[in-house]
Each structure stands twice: as structure tokens, then as C-alpha cells.
Amino acid sequence: MDFLFFFNSLIPSWTSVSLLLGFFGYLGIAGSILPGKLVPGANLADGTRLHYRCNGLLSLLLLVGLLVIGAWMDVVSLTAISDRGLELLSTTFIFSVIVTLLLYVAGCKSNDRSASLKPHITGNIIDDWWFGIQLNPNFLGVDLKFFFVRAGMMGWLLINLSVLAKSIQDSNLSQSMILYQIFCVIYIMDYFFYEEYMTSTWDIIAERLGFMLVFGDLVWIPFTFSIQGWWLMSNKVELTTAAVVANCCVFVIGYLVFRGANKQKHDFKKNPKALIWGQSPKVIGGKLLVSGYWGIARHCNYLGDLLLALSFSLPCGISSPVPYFYPIYLLILLIWRERRDEARCAEKYKEVWAEYRKTVPWRILPYVY
């Protein structure tokens, strides 16, 4: 009976399809017409640069405002997502598969020789579909890679807010839920406030757009990062004052390290002479920053990310491993990504990278790893 109910809950409905397409339609229109800072991307192999309209924060605030007004007018339901979580999950997954198949076909047929659209075909269909063929495919002038990242982060917040609305509706709002929601809102709002920093990340600069990124952005981020909220909706957790304080400390430290490290890297790329912690930056080989957080560990930003992920799970207590899926997964992912980053940098910078490793011996966590 339970399995049959679970299976039936995964079957997409026209409602879930309409919700998903309406969300994407709104993002496409809002991202194109709302004002926002036009940020140049990294220099591509052919010397060209893409430009990104960073109006994600305004798009998000407007969307939330429209949903609140719609709920007040009894036009939309704030619990629509939490009521249809599994079918929205399957609908989004199917959408990701279809989109990446279309990207594969379009990439194979493309004759464009620009760095952003030139097809990179290995001949292995699975590999090309998984990792993608084109660097920056677009649809109706919308950069799909940047669009999908934005959709995933907004989707995470919308799921959380719907779960919160469901908890309030069922008179099941807890201190743990409030703490989790506050941490996630701060993190996601901060992401969109500094959205231009996303333009200098490895995913945007170097990863081609295939199933790995599309699935990661549209399915993995919103539906797995919100597991804690789903879990708290069905499980009551009472936290001591000491636990709340400790949880807040983990979040604050994680945020300071994560945001500080990323900001230093972004500012350095824009202006190599920008002061870091009040001093001129130290650089190896003219390219590798060894000041600030980047002199503590080679991937100090990953440490901040891991602490933030842990802070999202700590409000759930320690009675179940389920809410800790996100930080455990992230630990595995970031160690794997760190190894890929190390291999790329060793090949790119050669002896300069070897000198950098001697200067900054720790990978992520100083004196441990």
C-alpha cells in the first residue's frame, strides 16, 4: 500500500507540468526585462566574452511578492509545492532528460565555431550527453547554463517556503523549522545579492552544459538541499539553548569563510592589486593568490560550504541520518571536485602549481586535509 502510494505520487500531473513551465516562463521573461547589472563573463578561448544580466535578486523578490498577493487573493496556494513534492520531482527529472537530449541533438547539428557554441564531440554518446557538447548554449537569447543555476537556487527557496506554509497550516511550526528556514533564506538571498560572483565559477567558465549540470541545477539542488525541511515537517525536534547557539555559530563561521573566500577570489580576478585583509595580495607566478583565506587552504571556500551545509542539518537533531544527506553528499562531492581541480591546475600551471602547493599545503581543512 505504501509503495503503491509512493509510486502514484511520482506520476506527473498537468498541474505539476503547469507549475514547472510557469516557473521557467516567469524566469525567462523576468530575467530578460527586469533591470540588473550587466556583468562581463570570463574571456573565452577565442577572446570573446559573454555578458550576464544579474537581476536574480529582483526576480526572486518580485516572484515571492506575486505569490503572496496571489495567495491573499485566493488565486494560488502557498502549499502547492509541498502538496505535490514527489510529482514535481519526477516532472523536473523528466524535463531535465528531455532538455539534455535536445541540447545533445542541437549541439551535434551545430556548425558554430565560436568558443561558447563550438561542439565538442568525443564520439561516446553517453559521455557527450552527460558532460554536454557546447559550453554556453542559449535559447531565445537566454544563456541556459546561467538560467538553470538561477532556477535551481530559486526552486530551493520556493520549496522551503511552501514547506513552511504547510507547517503553519498544519499548526506544526517548530523552533527547528524556523532556524532552518532562517539559515537557508540568508544563504539564498546572499547568493543572489552576489550573483555576479557566479560568473567566475568553474561551472560557468569551463563546464559544458549536459545532463550533469542540468540535473544538478534543476533537480539535485532544490530537491535534495531541502530534505531537512521535508523531514522537519514530519518530525518534531526540541533544541536546547546551547544547541541553538552552537548551530548559529557553525552557520556564522561557515558563512564568513564561504563568502569571504569567494569574495577575495572574485575581487582578485577583477583587480589583482585589491587589498586583502588590509594588505597587498601575495601572488605566486603572477596568477595564484596566497593571501587571505587562499593562504590558509587551497580550497578554503569548500570548507565554508561544508560548514553551511552542516548548519542546515543541525536543527534536525541527531535522531536520524536522513537530514544529514546534504552535508555528507557535499563532502564527497567537494573532495571529488577538489581532486579534479588539483589535476586541472597542475596541468595548467605546472611548476607554479608545485610551488603553490608547498606554500599552501592544506587542501580544504588546515592541519587535517
TrEMBL record:
The answer to keyword Transmembrane helix applying to this record is: yes
What EC class does the entry list?
A: oxidoreductase
Q: Which Gene3D superfamilies match?
A: 1.20.120.1630
The UniProt transmembrane annotation reads: 12-36, 56-76, 88-107, 147-165, 177-194, 209-232, 239-258, 312-336
* UniProt subcellular location: Membrane
PROSITE patterns reported for this sequence: STEROL_REDUCT_2
Read off the InterPro entries from this record: ERG24_DHCR-like, Sterol_reductase_CS
Give the protein family. Answer: Belongs to the ERG4/ERG24 family.
Identify this protein by name.
Answer: Delta(14)-sterol reductase
